[in-house]
Predict the 3D structure of the following.
Amino acid sequence: MKVRIFQATLAATLIFFALLPTFADRYFINYFLLLFMYLTLAGSWNIITGYVGYLALGHASFFGVGAYVSALLIIEFGVFWPIAALAGGVGAAICAAIMGGICLRLRHIFFAIATLAFSEAIRVIVLSWDDVTYGGFGVSIPLYPYLAPFYYFMGGCAVATVLMTFFLARSNFGLRLLAIREDEDAAESVGVDTTRCKIIAFVMSAVLCGVAGGVYAPYITYIEPVSTFSVLITTQLIVMAVFGGTGTIWGPVIGVILLSTMQEIFWAQFPYLHRVLFGALIVGTILWMPHGLIDVLKTRGLLPRSRNL
Amino acid sequence: MLEGIPVIWLQVLVSGLLVGVVYALSACGLNLIVGVMGIVNMAHGEQLMIGAYITLGVYLWLGTQNPLILLVAIPVTFVLGMMIQKYLLEPMMESLEVGTLLLTFGLSVFLSTGGLFVLSANFRFVPLFSGSLVWGELAFPIARLVTAGFAVVLTGAIYLFLRKHRIGGAIRATSQNAEAASACGIDVRKIRILAFGLGSAMAGAAGALVSTSYAFNPDIGMTFILKTFAAIVLGGMGSFVGGLIGALILGVGEAMAAYITTAQIAEMFAYVILVAVLLFRPNGIMGIKKT
């Protein structure tokens, strides 16, 4: 019975969001578009950090690489933006494969800061390689006059992220990742090819970030290195995923919905203070509800205990 | 002009070393924490930033040119570090590593953005020293020389403390094998708190030294954690001497890169080193393999 209620709610939500552009104000379409973007980013990050247990601090760079690949393809070669966005995903995947190949042979403490260093390095490269990337001037993309296609594409990314996590959580491969998270040496000794699994998971967690960046660039029509590769993006997606609950399918979703709504209502009025609150929120969440809101709901009996949630 | 070439290289080398010893202070501090706790404190750079602002505050408050105000940051960041370990990290010691790392990352975000909120993003500077020491064709800013002197003395003092003192021995024992140390009657919890405080104090001291020769704002933590990290990866995680060597190589390498190319590309030097070392020698020069 409970499962049916859940499925019905899910279907109703999907239909609601599919029909939203036909009746809603532009403000709401824009708002949900960005919410979908954060769903994609936080959900993707959840794969490497929630399921594999490796803290990745460079996801803004996948987003940024996706945005730049897409933007440059559009303005230099006139590629239609949805194709450019997918190419952005490919760019991010290649980036992640290189970065993962180097960083994931190492254990946690190396990995976290190595990803941070990588993303800083990518930002410096984009900033100083101005023959190709236009450096600090940024890239302007001609306006594509419709909003709904961006909305649907970003929504598709969010749905794809949730589906990917869902199948991952139920798959054999997902179990291997969990084994790595709990005890990497033990996982290796029972025959899990840990490095390979970690790299695949890392690439999986980068692809959709790249696509989201690839959609974001033509949507926002102007990108530049400092804000596109900002640590703030990484912080924001981490705080959302951690608040909702990492290592679960719906945790990041709940976190993104709650926190972006709060951000829209209250925090937008305090542009600097809300960043401070982000930091405090990460610390507080880790200390008092280390498995996130979704785990609190589960222990209180408000949600069924299931691996599928 | 022909004689000028080796002189300029000597200048670059010494300048690099002068910066390198300040990096070394921060790197040895982080290595102390890594060694004892097995985790990287992501907020290490922010503690450095706090050290710089404390120095600025004391300088503005007292309006003195006395270089001893550089030492004020040390006790403050020492206590701050002990409190962070005691109240935030100690409850997390049994949980998954990713949780602890995330916690220090959250702390780093909190401190740097809190700094931006309270202190604004304007770049500040502590003009404690001025002028340069000119020696033949070489010239070195007084600020760099004095801060390098402070850094050498402080690093040396901590090194001797770890080598000779009973408590230093307990810290080393804990970092080699916490369980065995605990079995020998060492209160591992207290040692962790102390080690974290010491590591933070070293970051704070490095920040105080940095404040006299670089412009800083609340965002510098990020730059310095990456440089510190590059230094300890290069030298070897958890090895005090390794951190020292790594930091000196990093300082000299950066100075040379800045001389040959541009300052912006020199910024990349730390990252390039980081990636290269991770690829070819993940345990660093003096690395000890942790089990």
Remarks:
- Chain B touches chain A through 47 residues (CB under 8 Å).
- The domain at 8-280 of chain B is CATH 1.10.3470 (ABC transporter involved in vitamin B12 uptake, BtuC).
